[in-house]
Design a protein that fits this description.
By secondary structure, the protein is an alpha/beta fold. Among the domains are: 198 residues, Vaccinia Virus protein VP39 (Rossmann fold); 193 residues, Vaccinia Virus protein VP39 (Rossmann fold). Helix content is 31%, strand content 17%. Strand 4, helix 7 and strand 5 form a beta-alpha-beta unit. Keywords: Glycoprotein, Membrane, Methyltransferase, Signal-anchor, Transferase, Transmembrane, Transmembrane helix. It is an enzyme of class 2 (transferase).
Length: 592
């Protein structure tokens, strides 16, 4: 008989015990190691921030969001800080989400906002090393590198004069791809063909603006330029523009109308903006025509204007301009200048693009989430607002705008609003000590602008004002542009299309009306979400001014403490009627 090789039962039992002890010891030492990694190393900080961000953005968090909002609103519970990697977070232009969308007509680069319940309820932190911005007008030429430490544009475009890094600052020589010798020389060249000086032109649109040097240097000619570009591979170009104190806005000419009124811009400019104006049956040229004031000027520099291997594109561009009866002013190298008809359009006519007038029911100023149309907007409305007829700047600011007459009781309402804001802004300066006249306040927003009375009353101060007309309120933005001011349509139940830390001062009258449904009077969103968004776009040490009924101001003050502002409540001006109170708050400069 052979011998058995199996072990005894007692030996097998001891082996299993040792295996179990080995496993327990291994798990124990792994947990100890993990503890040290999480507590004492940068990896732990990173993992913790990532986990916190995941929680903020997760569905589990959204289930508790309502309770959190209620706690902030009723008890002033503090809103926590977002993770450090959200320092430049733009909810509606988030490349992590939007990159999954269709590329057709650049749809993925347009606004796509998360639902409120899916949005993180936290305060955006400043980047490490953030400093109070360089004051105006020095900021036109230099900004702190630490406020937006992104070297990509300086590295790639420095040789074209866009910007360069020098020590602690980014320096802006004033150049651009099509004007590497500087915007001033380029503007001087354009002045040979169009009336740059003298107040004939006041509002301009710069499409695909880069760091907005063109708009920055037009300011010395009293031309106020809305510069826009998408959030794209040139990271932070609009952020650089705003840090410089130049009016700018994140937008993309894609599938929708831009959020501006019809016939508002005296000058539309594209310097190598690479917009395919003749594509999609000339849809983008038609949108430019909608925005351009009768008698206004269109300037395109760069491709396809007399550009190598783009003969067909250049030919098509000229054909569209002819179809719209634009007057060719000049072709100077790679720059073309056209002038739009000051009177009625020349359509209908025979043209290869099949361009036709929109029907009478079309409202050309409807522009909030409004799809591009393939028809040309009519200009035959009451009130003459063409270049050459509308008053020159600065008389234009105080003359009753032509299109205010289209509103019921428009003229009386406009004149009363103008006088009211002259009184109010004087009170802000003299009694509330709001620093509108100092270099520390440059970028200003009026969240509920109506006719732009607040901005008009600040005309003597070194500021520019983004006049926002809420999409749910009467569409008065055309009146604001007729006055020679600029602004956009926006719904304040969504985040604004700008980077964090864009504005030095944010002003809002009747804040609660921004979140209410005009028909039902019910809230469409929460005051907490709105104030967290205001905090996102306000600079540290910036100022918020809120006017509303006392009970609303008390609620705003409670939330202000929760978002780390320092609020003070004042009585209204002695001359004002109604029950208003005024809250003035300062955003604190805090760090993670």
């Amino acid at each position: 008989m052979g011998h058995s090789n199996s072990s005894s039962p007692s030996k097998r039992g001891h082996a299993r015990k040792w295996q179990l002890l080995d496993l327990v010891s291994g798990v124990f030492f792994f947990l100890v190691l993990l503890f040290f990694v999480m507590v004492f190393t940068p990896l732990g900080d990173s993992l913790a921030a990532s986990g916190r961000q995941t929680l903020l953005l997760s569905g589990a968090d959204s289930r508790h969001r309502h309770q959190l909002v209620e706690a902030v609103e009723t008890a002033g519970r503090g809103v926590e800080a977002c993770p450090a990697d959200m320092a430049d977070y733009m909810p509606c232009e988030d490349p992590r989400l939007n990159s999954q969308l269709s590329r057709e007509m650049n749809y993925y680069r347009e606004r796509h906002c998360p639902r409120p319940e899916d949005s993180p309820l936290c305060l955006i932190p400043p980047p490490s090393g953030y400093r109070v911005p360089v004051p105006w007008p020095e900021s036109l030429h230099k900004i702190w590198h630490s406020n937006m430490p992104y070297n990509k544009i300086a590295d790639r475009k420095g040789h074209q004069g866009w910007m360069k890094l020098e020590g602690q600052h980014f320096i802006f020589p004033g150049g651009g791809t099509m004007f590497p010798d500087g915007a001033e020389q380029y503007i001087e060249k354009l002045g040979q063909y169009i009336p740059i000086s003298g107040g004939v032109l006041r509002t301009a649109l710069d499409m695909g603006c880069g760091v907005a040097s063109f708009g920055g240097f037009l300011l010395s000619h009293n031309i106020l330029t809305m510069s826009f570009a998408p959030r794209d591979s040139h990271k932070a170009q609009i952020q650089f523009a705003l840090e410089r104190g130049i009016p700018a806005f994140v937008a993309m000419l894609g599938t929708r109308r831009l959020p501006f009124p019809a016939f508002g811009f005296d000058l539309v400019h594209c310097s190598r903006c690479l917009i395919p104006f003749t594509a999609y049956n000339a849809s983008y040229f038609i949108e430019v025509d909608r925005l351009l004031r009768p008698g206004g000027y269109l300037v395109i520099s760069g491709p396809p204007v007399q550009w190598p291997k783009q003969d067909k594109e250049w030919s098509d561009l000229q054909a569209v301009a002819r179809a719209l009866c634009y007057e060719l002013i000049a072709v100077d190298g790679n720059t073309v200048i056209w002038k739009k008809l000051a009177g009625e359009t020349c359509l209908p006519n025979e043209n290869e693009f099949g361009l036709e007038l929109c029907d009478e029911s079309d409202d050309p100023s409807q522009a909030w989430y409004f799809k591009l149309k393939k028809c040309v907007s009519r200009t035959s409305v009451k009130g003459d607002y063409a270049i050459g007829v509308i008053p020159k700047w600065p008389e234009r600011l105080t003359t009753t705008p032509p299109r205010s007459t289209l509103l019921k009781n428009g003229v009386d309402l406009y004149e009363a609003d103008t006088k009211r804001w002259v009184r109010r802004v004087a009170h802000y300066k003299n009694h509330l000590k709001i620093k509108l006249g100092s270099g520390s306040v440059r970028n200003v927003m009026d969240m509920n602008a109506l006719f732009g009375g607040f901005a008009a009353a600040a005309k003597s101060d070194p500021v520019w004002v983004m006049n926002v007309v809420p999409a749910q309120k009467p569409p008065t933005l055309d009146v604001i542009f007729d006055r020679g001011l600029i602004g956009v349509y926006h719904d304040w139940c969504e985040p604004f299309s700008t980077y964090p830390r864009s504005y030095d001062l944010i002003h809002v009258a009747s804040i609660e009306s921004l979140i209410k449904d005009p028909a039902s009077g019910k809230n469409r969103c929460t005051l907490v979400d709105l104030m967290v968004e205001i905090d996102r776009i306000l600079r540290p040490e910036g100022t918020v001014v809120v006017r509303d009924a006392p009970e609303v101001i008390d609620k705003v003050a409670r939330i202000a403490g929760a978002v780390r502002w320092k609020p003070t409540i004042y009585d209204k001006e002695p001359e004002s009627h109604g029950r208003e109170k005024i809250l003035v708050a300062t955003k604190t400069l805090w760090k993670l």
